């Protein structure tokens, strides 16, 4: 997987910097950049349509409290 041993990474400053840059690059590739939410974004529209941005109603809060009481004993 690696063309050299792990212990030899930090013997050279340049190899260590190259290795660290690779780790950062991999993290950015996996996590990605956050998307900009403009007015035409389908994910933002889906959030609005499903009501995820609304505050819970009193009935929802009471129902959640009842469920938590039943779980707690």
Describe the structure.
This protein is an all-alpha fold. 59% of the residues lie in helices and 0% in strands. It contains three helices and no strands. It starts with 12 loop residues before the first helix and ends with a helix.
Assess the beta-strand content as a share of residues: under 5%
In terms of quaternary structure, what is this? single chain
The overall average pLDDT, rounded, is 76
Low-confidence stretches: none
The total count of strands amounts to: 0
Give the helix/strand layout.
Blueprint: H1 13-31, H2 42-50, H3 58-72
Give a brief outline of the structure:
Helices cover 59% and strands 0% of the residues. It contains 3 helices and no strands.
Index terms:
single chain, 73 residues, mainly alpha
């Amino acid at each position: 997987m690696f063309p050299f041993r792990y212990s030899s990474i930090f013997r050279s400053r340049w190899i260590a910097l190259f290795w660290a840059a690779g780790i950062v690059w991999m993290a950015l590739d996996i996590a990605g950049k956050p998307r900009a939410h403009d007015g035409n974004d389908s994910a933002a529209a889906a959030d609005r349509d499903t009501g995820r941005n609304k505050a819970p109603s009193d009935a929802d809060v009471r129902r959640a409290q009842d469920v938590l009481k039943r779980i707690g004993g």
